[in-house]
Write a structure and sequence with these properties.
Layout (H helix, E strand, L loop, with lengths): L7 E10 L2 E11 L4 E6 L5 H8 L7 E6 L2 E3 L4 H6 L2 E4 L11 H5 L6 E3 L6 E2 L1 H15 L15 H15 L3 E5 L7 H16 L4 E4 L3 H7 L2 E6 L2 E7 L5 H9 L13 E2 L1
Parallel strand pairs: 3-10, 3-11, 6-9, 9-10
Antiparallel strand pairs: 1-2, 1-4, 4-5, 7-8, 11-12, 12-13
Helix pairs in contact: 4-5, 5-6
This protein binds adenosine-5'-triphosphate.
Amino acid sequence: MSTPTPVLEIQKLTKHYGGVKALTDAQFRLLPGEHAAIVGDNGAGKSTFVRLITGAEQPNSGDILLDGGKVNFESPLDAREQGIETVYQTLALAEDLDVPANIFLGREITRLNLGPLSILNHKAMREKSAAMLSTTGVKIQDMSESLRGMSGGQRQCVAIARAAGFAKKLIILDEPTAALGVQETARVEEIIKGLKQRGIPLIIISHNLRQVFDLVDRIWVFRQGRIICSRLTRETSPEEIVGLITGAIDPASLRSEEAATC
Ligand SMILES: Nc1ncnc2c1ncn2[C@@H]1O[C@H](COP(=O)(O)OP(=O)(O)OP(=O)(O)O)[C@@H](O)[C@H]1O
């Protein structure tokens, strides 16, 4: 059986800051409908990788392919327009605005487009927001409430619903539950499982191995500025992943056709 064209493929991506080799020759792929995790110790190169594939920075060399075609991201907006939605830890939400205004932040629907004097179509934004939240399984009692009154978990859910509503290709979640309690974490994880059922490809950066094993199909291990290995979740274990992260396990010892790409 032939492998489908990856939604995202990364070939030999490299980023050095002067003498600091933040990322060297990174190889990565995300298949249609796949959920993947990026793991690694502090300083392993995960954030650098994410900045490159979301257009926040440009690589020194290497290629980014979306659905098999080479792309160049000049900016985060560029990556977004080409189909990559990212939910950063900061969430990029405006606390004083209500839910529809946040969902359409920077992508407002207008009734009359007169440049700076455009008239917003609040009704359309409200209706589309309600549909996006409902499809993603996010329950918000009062959409006209500003985000200031909402919990961290609710805000995270709004940010994920927005990403899911606009993502043409894939979603990237950067430590989505790092700041959340147990119940809110469980809620956000349910939302992420819903995205899997809808076939939306996703990359999650997480230090929480329990979460990673619960949510994703494949785990990519970063170590000292390189992607050293990827493992199918069902064919590995938390102990093995920790061994790869720390260097106690040599990825070459795991090489096998179906289970790993190293
Ligand atoms: N703008 C920069 N200038 C110089 N060095 C940088 C820069 N950004 C990252 N680095 C270095 O590149 C290496 C990889 O950093 P990166 O932040 O990508 O790691 P990380 O895996 O995301 O770590 P963490 O889990 O702590 O966020 C580190 O040595 C870091 O100090």
